[in-house]
Specification:
The protein is of the alpha/beta class. It has 5 helices and 4 strands; from the N terminus they run βαβααβαβα. Helix 1 crosses helix 5 and helix 2 packs across helix 5. The longest helix has 22 residues. The model has no long low-confidence stretch (mean pLDDT 97).
Length: 153
């Protein structure tokens, strides 16, 4: 089984969106037992909280359920436990490289490196914006998640 961790800042917008979308599509594709997903934040600002209500509403409109997810910070054991640790933007990747033991650096990747329509960039933080920002994040997440699932299918 491959274990994949999505990482953003507070773990209430971008990484739970990717997590929820990945879980949804893995189940739909019959990939249970092949891949496992989780999400975490570089900071514990929202530890234990559900995803941002705007993220939940946007996801629900597309058929994704995020309400059961809870924010948590990246833990030292995550670097060993997960096979792939996926940064939502370059700042997260820099943070992860500083925290990650060198023997696990090969696990650190950019999320959009798996995308076709939104390659090699950052997933913008929608937290301080309007509803459109959450829709754009979902577009990016759907694209990159499909790339990840194709890799492990």
């Amino acid at each position: 089984m491959k274990r994949i961790l999505f990482v953003c800042t507070g773990n209430i917008c971008r990484s739970p969106a990717a997590d929820g979308i990945a879980r949804h599509w893995a189940a739909k594709l019959g990939m249970q037992g092949q891949v496992e997903f989780d999400s975490a934040g570089t900071h514990a600002y929202h530890d234990g909280e559900a995803p941002d209500p705007r993220a939940q509403r946007a996801a629900k409109r597309r058929g994704y359920e995020l309400s059961r997810l809870r924010a948590r910070p990246v833990m030292p054991q995550d670097f060993e436990r997960f096979d792939l640790i996926v940064a939502m933007d370059r700042g997260h990747l820099v943070w992860l490289r500083r925290k990650c033991p060198s023997e696990h650096h090969h696990k650190l990747v950019m999320f959009l490196s798996f995308a076709e329509r939104f390659p090699d960039g950052d997933v913008p933080d929608p937290y301080y914006g309007d509803e459109d920002g959450f829709e754009r994040v979902l577009d990016m997440c759907e694209d990159a998640v499909q790339g990840i699932l194709d890799k492990y299918r």
